[in-house]
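PROTEIN DESIGN WORKSHEET
SECTION A - STRUCTURE
LENGTH: 395
TOKENS:
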């Protein structure tokens, strides 16, 4: 065994040794508990963002390790904002997100990158008065996190830390709260809203929740069997000049086929006078299917497949695809093992393949720890192996 794989194996075994002896933010695998819609637990109808009071309770009961407590036992005030120390009004939601990690990357048998990742440090609130809502977050982005946060910057200090705001919007609930009309900076409704923002299905469609939010107007519907959201994208007004701002639409529709089975479709089309990467006029399209399936309660299968079409001025039109399949198994309450396969093809290059092995422990309400072993190889590249450790706290 090479030194690289010895280090990988030792790191994975060390984490599993911690996790296994112990007796679910938008986690799409919560469908194992028959939660097919997202607005039951989250302020965002497509998932993520602030947890409602009911969402905090279910986070403590169903998501975290219970250490012998039953699902019928009330979770207490520890689940609340700031662990229940500071009471909050019924019409106000507070949230805080702190996520840090450490990354090792190997290529060709050599360690080519190792660094501390300051992923997120945000605070936010949502206020609801009658049928009206106002929501917003503000946070801090370290200088070395520019590649994963720059599109959310409010300040623009190229060589240092920056203020970020990932979401801020106002909205009104209609039709007995089944419909939410919003305007502001929001996550794009597209595909599975998974936390793994570097997966190819998220980066290729530019729909991750770290920085790819856009300003626009959104209309969301949540019914008993059907949920959907359509957003008119007006551009990201936290980047400049205006030529870099994409305009178009993004939307999804998901049908609950049974209590633990759902199938959805997504569609996105945008145009920018100057793409952020190529600096030429570009029209992007992504259209696909996604599914969430739980044949038995411990196991959830998540799958997404998207067709990609890019039309760039002076270059022409090229196609491609991105897809992923993930199996998540909850071995005991709060402890998950997952395996993910993914693929990506862009333009005339061959298809790349990748694989993730994940161990994830929701230690208690507000806290989780995770390790990922990631192997990826794009066409005509030597490939890379990464170990990513993460610690997350949600206030």
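SECTION B - SEQUENCE
RESIDUE ASSIGNMENT:
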């Amino acid at each position: 065994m090479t030194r690289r794989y010895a280090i990988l194996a030792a790191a994975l075994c060390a984490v599993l040794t911690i996790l296994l002896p112990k007796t679910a933010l938008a986690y799409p695998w919560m469908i194992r508990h028959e939660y097919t819609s997202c607005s039951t637990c989250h302020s965002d109808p497509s998932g993520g963002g602030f947890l409602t009071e009911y969402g905090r309770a279910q986070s403590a009961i169903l998501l975290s390790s219970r250490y012998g407590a039953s699902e019928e036992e009330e979770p207490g005030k520890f689940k609340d904002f700031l662990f229940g120390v500071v009471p909050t009004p019924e019409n106000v939601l507070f949230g805080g997100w702190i996520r840090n990690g450490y990354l090792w990357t190997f290529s060709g048998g050599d360690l080519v990158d190792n660094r501390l990742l300051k992923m997120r440090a945000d605070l936010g609130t949502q206020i609801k008065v009658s049928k009206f809502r106002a929501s917003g977050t503000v946070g801090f982005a370290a200088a070395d996190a520019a590649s994963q946060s720059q599109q959310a910057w409010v300040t623009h200090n190229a060589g240092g830390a920056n203020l970020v705001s990932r979401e801020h919007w106002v909205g009104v609930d209609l039709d007995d709260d089944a419909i939410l009309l919003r305007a502001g900076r929001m996550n794009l409704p597209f595909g599975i809203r998974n936390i793994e923002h570097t997966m190819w299905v998220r980066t290729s469609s530019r729909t991750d929740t770290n920085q790819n939010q856009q300003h626009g107007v959104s209309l969301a519907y949540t019914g008993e069997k059907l949920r959907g959201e359509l957003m008119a994208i007006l551009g990201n007004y936290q980047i400049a000049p205006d030529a870099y701002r994409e305009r178009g639409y993004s939307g999804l529709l998901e049908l609950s086929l049974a209590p633990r089975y759902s199938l959805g479709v997504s569609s996105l089309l945008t145009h920018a006078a100057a793409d952020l990467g190529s600096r030429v006029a570009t029209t992007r399209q992504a259209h696909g299917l996604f599914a969430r399936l739980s044949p038995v309660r411990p196991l959830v299968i998540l799958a997404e497949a998207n067709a990609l079409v890019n039309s760039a001025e002076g270059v022409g039109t090229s196609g491609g695809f991105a897809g992923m399949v993930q199996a998540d198994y909850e071995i005991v309450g709060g402890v998950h093992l997952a395996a993910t396969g993914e693929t990506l093809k862009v333009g005339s290059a061959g298809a790349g393949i990748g694989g993730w092995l994940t161990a994830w422990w929701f230690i208690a309400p507000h806290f989780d720890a995770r390790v990922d072993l990631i192997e990826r190889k794009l066409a005509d590249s030597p490939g890379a192996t990464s170990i990513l450790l993460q610690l997350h706290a949600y206030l």
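SECTION C - NOTES
The chain has one domain: 3-394.
Confidence is low (pLDDT under 50) at residues 1-24.
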